[in-house]
Amino acid sequence: MTGVGFLYYDVLKTFIAVVEEKNFTKAAEKLMISQPSVSLHIKNLEKEFQTALLNRSPKHFTTTPTGDILYQRAKQMVFLYEQAKAEIYAHHHYVKGELKIAASFTIGEYILPPLLAQLQKLYPELNLDVMIGNTEEVSERVRMLQADIGLIEGHTNENELEIEPFMEDEMCIAAPNQHPLAGRKEISISDLQNEAWVTREKGSGTREYLDHVLSSNGLRPKSMFTISSNQGVKEAVINGMGLSVLSRSVLHKDLIHREISILHIKDFSLKRKLSYIHSPLMENTKNKEIFITMLKSNYQSQLLK
To answer: 57-82 burial, b if ≥16 CB within 10 A, otherwise e?
Structure first.
């Protein structure tokens, strides 16, 4: 042959299909090309090798001795071509090195771990360095180029960073099981007036969300007790210190074990967007691109609900 490029790869695949299907029409359907294209490929092969490859008859055909030789070699050449293509792809997409992720507490402790496990399974030589802090701390890490990517709740005041939502997070009003409102099927937003609240620290996305809910609905808290961890907030609520606003992902196990109650507010939706942030000054590495792709494929559909 004068050359074995991708054009001859297609021609050889056509010849293999014709021999295996024993029918030009079926081979064309299998390869999703026209029957005239199949006939042209066979004609070009016979011209290239200066030999008849098929014994044709009105009802069927068989391969000639040279056709048998080409069929065996064609199978080998197609296999080697596809193997080389796969090896080259693997070389360019080989994932190793390090990926530094900064994540807010809710995301880092409750949403991110399953994704990290999946990432480690697919790319065992990728070293993951995860820092967990509040939204303000995560934004600062990314701005100072100390993290390749950050995952935050709510917004960031860092204008130097690019932000893109990746999932919708359901928020809940958490209450002690013994709270008077906990036994009611549904409450109104005004029922939350003058209640004690347990909340995260300033700079936390969860605290920002609670402040927004209170201020936008004219709710005056009786008291505000601040704890800088989700687990601490939950324990305080369970022990009767007040109400809190937390992500459903944070409350998942506690709800299963019925250790905490959720207050359902009539005609009121509590949702927020979780986002990833990165600096345009930071190089878009292969590792970061793979992580963003997995992040979107796992959670993006939730934004469309």
So the answer is: eeeebebeeebeebbeebeebbeebe
